[in-house]
């Protein structure tokens, strides 16, 4: 088949999670390998790729807006939409003149081949739109998306897992992403070694449900109980292997389920010197009744015990989380209980989301749906509580030493500086007229700047 991609220009716009970002980077590299030239999103190009998200109604709306914007920017070009919004709602786009090609999840690695085929089909008079979306029941195998990571960054995100089997009552992601699947450990290590050779110092292990890494090779019963393989969690084996790569000085983890954080697991993590003491433990609500309605499989007491365990094995680790407010049936008392729990735990950072009603989920059919105004009110209260705990966490680090990996120049409060992150993922700034990119230094925090960054010396 003719190579229709040679000398084509393209741009990519990514919405949603870090997994999407990893996949977009792989798509970018594949297209460049086919002779294409990358351009910033917003310029007129031959091909525009929108990597969509569907986690909330807002994500859906932004995905639609970006698809339409892409066509307006490049009316004569091909607009290819992929990702979770496409996987879930491909049928709604077949009459949309703004989109030319629809590619579902776990077919992103085929995008260069698909584009070439689309150009061929167009040359034969087919008009499209062209649909390349599998039924979600077929989203089972892990899709390899090779990457070289030729960049000037010091941190890289590695996708190691896909899919989710949890089926929380509010979430469409198990349908959009399919069942759990994992990347081979040796392939992750090989990519990490390649990253280290390019100067990457920190790797972040990511997945749709990272805690399920390696469990797709286990029985359903083992998956349900999150049992370990030969006495060790597959995720733990992966972390150790990545941490052993020469040149990598930090390993950071994506979102984790509280249920896997047993005493043995946490103790084992504390024995990996390169592991960053920042743990994003998914919470969603600080009220047991709401957690049960959400089909979250832990209680606040169990969550509290995990946090205690982490603080016993690590020195003041950063505990971060996600919270949903305004869940169907959440009473004012239950909401206040959730706010109190956030204050009690003292999170280093909280991402607050008003509940978003998703068609096809259990929560969509629940009674007690709140108005958007009420959800917004509750979000404001929760955000204020979270801002206070974040401030208190960072204030504890004033006057203390921190290992900071500096990344890039910035201007904060009108002052030129270099910014980076501590192992706890607290942002730090240092006044310097030298290039600090990629330098890891021990600094002392002096004060907190207006944007929350710690000024260091």
Number of helices: 13
Rounded to the nearest angstrom, the radius of gyration is 23 Å
Largest sheet: 6 strands, parallel
Question: How far do the termini sit from each other?
Answer: 60 Å
- Flag low-confidence runs: 226-230
Give the CATH superfamily of the largest domain: tm_1862 like domain
What's the CATH first level of the largest domain? Alpha Beta
User: Which band does the percent of strand residues land in?
Assistant: 15-25%
Helix content: 25-40%
Number of strands: 18
Form type: globular
Pairing-aware structural class of the strands and helices?
Answer: alpha/beta
Q: Give the name of the CATH architecture of the largest domain.
A: Alpha-Beta Horseshoe
Provide mean pLDDT, rounded: 91
Query: Order of strands side by side in the largest beta sheet?
Result: 2-1-3-4-5-6
CATH topology-level fold name of the largest domain: pyruvate-formate lyase- activating enzyme
Total number of distinct structural domains = 3
Key descriptive features of the protein:
457 residues; 22% strand; alpha/beta; 13 helices; 6-stranded parallel sheet; 5-stranded mixed barrel
Describe what this molecule looks like in 3D.
It contains 13 helices and 18 strands. The protein has a 6-stranded parallel β-sheet, with helices on both faces. It has a 5-stranded mixed barrel with strand order 14-15-16-18-17. Strands 8-7-9-10 form a 4-stranded mixed β-sheet, sandwiched between helices. The radius of gyration is 23 Å and the shape is globular. By secondary structure, it is an alpha/beta fold. It has helices spanning 18-33, 57-73, 84-89, 111-123, 173-177, 185-197, 220-225, 234-243, 263-270, 288-293, 300-313, 332-345, 372-395, and strands spanning 9-14, 37-38, 47-52, 78-83, 101-103, 130-132, 155-162, 181-182, 202-207, 250-253, 278-280, 318-325, 349-354, 401-412, 415-422, 427-430, 440-448, 454-456. The protein folds into 3 domains: 9-134, Rossmann fold, CATH 3.40.50; 155-395, pyruvate-formate lyase- activating enzyme, CATH 3.80.30.20; 401-456.
């Amino acid at each position: 088949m003719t190579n229709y991609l040679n000398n084509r220009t393209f741009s990519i716009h990514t919405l949603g999670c870090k997994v999407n970002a990893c996949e977009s980077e792989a798509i970018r590299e594949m297209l460049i390998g086919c002779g294409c030239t990358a351009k910033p999103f917003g310029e007129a190009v031959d091909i525009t790729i929108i990597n969509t998200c569907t986690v909330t109604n807002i994500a859906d709306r932004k995905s639609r807006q970006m698809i339409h914007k892409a066509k307006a920017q490049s009316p004569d070009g091909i607009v290819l939409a992929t990702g979770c919004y496409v996987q879930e709602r491909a049928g709604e786009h077949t009459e949309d003149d703004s989109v030319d090609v629809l590619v579902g999840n776990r077919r992103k690695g085929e995008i260069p081949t698909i584009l070439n085929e689309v150009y061929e089909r167009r040359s034969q008079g087919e008009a499209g739109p062209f649909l390349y979306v599998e039924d979600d029941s077929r989203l089972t195998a892990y899709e390899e998306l090779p990457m070289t990571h030729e960049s000037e960054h010091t941190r890289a995100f590695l996708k190691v897992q896909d899919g989710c089997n949890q089926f929380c009552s509010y979430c469409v992601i198990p349908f959009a992403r399919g069942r759990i699947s994992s990347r081979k450990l040796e392939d992750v290590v090989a990519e990490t070694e390649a990253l280290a050779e390019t100067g990457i110092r920190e790797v972040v292990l990511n997945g749709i449900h990272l805690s399920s890494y390696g469990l797709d090779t286990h029985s359903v019963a083992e998956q349900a109980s999150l049992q370990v393989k030969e006495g060790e969690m597959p995720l733990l084996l992966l972390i150790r292997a990545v941490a052993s790569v020469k040149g990598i000085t930090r390993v950071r983890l994506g979102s984790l389920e509280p249920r896997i954080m047993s005493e043995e697991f946490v103790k084992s993590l504390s024995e990996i010197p390169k592991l960053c003491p920042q743990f994003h433990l998914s919470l969603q609500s600080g009220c047991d009744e709401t957690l049960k309605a959400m089909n979250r499989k832990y209680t606040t007491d169990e969550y509290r015990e995990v946090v205690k365990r982490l603080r016993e094995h690590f020195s003041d680790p950063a505990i971060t989380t996600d919270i949903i407010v305004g869940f169907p049936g959440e009473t004012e008392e239950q909401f206040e209980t959730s706010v109190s729990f956030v204050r009690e735990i003292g999170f280093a950072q909280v991402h607050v989301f008003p509940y978003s009603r998703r068609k096809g989920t259990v929560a969509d059919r629940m009674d007690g749906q709140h108005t958007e105004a009420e959800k917004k009110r509750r979000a404001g209260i929760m955000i204020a509580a979270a801002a206070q705990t974040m401030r208190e966490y960072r204030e504890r680090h004033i006057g203390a030493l921190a290992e900071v990996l500096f990344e890039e120049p910035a201007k904060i409060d009108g002052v030129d500086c270099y910014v980076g992150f501590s192992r706890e993922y607290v942002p730090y700034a240092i006044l310097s007229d030298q290039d600090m990119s990629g330098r890891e230094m021990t600094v002392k925090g002096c004060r907190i700047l207006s944007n929350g960054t710690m000024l260091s010396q």
